[in-house]
Amino acid sequence: xxxxxxxxxxxxxxxxxxxxxxxxxxxxxxxxxxxxxxxxxxxxxxxxxxxxxxxxxxxxxxxxxxxxxxxxxxxxxxxxxxxxxxxxxxxxxxxxxxxxxxxxxxxxxxxxxxxxxxxxxxxxxxxxxxxxxxxxxxxxxxxxxxxxxxxxxxxxxxxxxxxxxxxxxxxxxxxxxxxxxxxxxxxxxxxxxxxxxxxxxxxxxxxxxxxxxxxxxxxxxxxxxxxxxxxxxxxxxxxxxxxxxxxxxxxxxxxxxxxxxxxxxxxxxxxxxxxxxxxxxxxx
Length: 284
Known about the structure:
- With 284 residues, the chain is mainly β.
- It has three helices and 20 strands.
- It has helices spanning 34-43, 186-192, 262-268, and strands at 2-6, 10-14, 52-56, 61-64, 68-76, 79-81, 84-86, 91-94, 100-102, 107-115, 146-147, 171-177, 197-203, 207-211, 226-227, 232-234, 242-244, 251-252, 256-260, 276-281.
């Protein structure tokens, strides 16, 4: 077991989600930054989709009841084990009873802590992921939560550190126009792919509201609800786009002006309030 001493602003158990259930109204959910989850698991020798802990803006403190091997990826911030500083993207050995603490990140928003053996909470519809929109999966972590650890895999970590490129400043994300780009004026489409936007304080695992130029429609009628994809840029009547992330709804009634390329959804999940974003037009 690993005991949660403090969860920080939000800590949840996440894996790669529960695909294939949209027909019954269940979204995929899973890690907001899937690449960072996969990397953390590879570092400790787990299968890439093993369940780990996703943090939001740090603050997580854990205490294992036996010696464990862990890795922390994603947001770049201070890590300590009983007060001793440790690096991110590195294999760490934590002794039984020691306190592992993740501080406030200096860049990025979400961190991933993988434990060798994986977090072995009970799966729901084939996944251990917490979906904050539907309420499926284990509840968000709280002080005193005890997380079971699964059996260690046969494979051993082959590296002790992973080089990861860090990015500061403005974030450029590739997006494909549509499927409802024709519901917007040419000026709105040009603004989406030409002007900067800023991540507002309205941000969670469902999505983020963006501040910037108003994206005006060319059509006034209402759109019937239709399927909603990960990375969709949905525009409500206010003209302020919402970028949907891991726990997005499976349907929506506002037009989608563009959809992020899959690899760029992971990068978007690390954007912080106040950060500038630009969208680069791509056709696939």
